[in-house]
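Exercise 3.2. Students should predict the tertiary structure of the chain below and write it as structure tokens, then compare their answer with the key that follows.

Predict this chain's 3D structure.
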Amino acid sequence: MYEILNSPIDIGRLTLKNRVAMTGMGTNLAAPEGGVSDDIIAFYEERAKGGHRPHHY
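Answer key:
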């Protein structure tokens, strides 16, 4: 039904492997002083692997 979401798209000289984007959001994973925590690093590492999958909360 949404096959186009999984197809590549060229934006200028950049080619993305799919059309799914992660919007800006708060994660509440920062260190207590507002710095970078191991949890926030793991959060973005997982997303940087590429692809997408549905999340159910």
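Discussion points: The CA atoms of residues 13 and 19 lie 15 Å apart. The helical segments are 38-48.
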